[in-house]
Amino acid sequence: MAGVVTLIKDDHAQLEKVFKQLEAQKGDVKKLLQQVEELLVPHSKAEEEVVYPAIKQTAPDEADEVDDGLAEHHHVEEVLTQLLGMDPDEPGADGLIAAMIGEVRHHVEEEEQDILPKFSDEASNQQLSELGERFTAAKEKYLEELRSARSRTA
Ligand SMILES: [Fe+2]
Ligand SMILES: [Fe+2]
Q: Is 88 helix (H, G, I), strand (E, B) or coil?
């Protein structure tokens, strides 16, 4: 099992691929936004449940950054929910998509450049790999939740 930092970065890279497609306006915008939701929401919730508390414990200097990260997750999720309720051709949708992508990129950069490197300096390999397993399991649980919520409203 890869360590949690690698798993998180892999998710970020997958998300970036969908962002590139949205920016290139290739494909069905609504479907792409749903892909963003499936990649981003379970990822963020699994970070909140499994990873962020471990970072606060192991690297307490990062606590403020982690709290900022949490607030960023919540804001991005609000924007995404708003977008999923809109017609992609509506005026303002493009601007909102661009703003959401910008926010996520900023957040990812903070995780990858600051929070995660400081955490992996302090954490043992065993801790990183155990967290990786728990992160993956939590993500699966939240993806399942998202899909069943979606099928109830569809
Ligand atoms: Fe992340
Ligand atoms: Fe995050």
A: coil
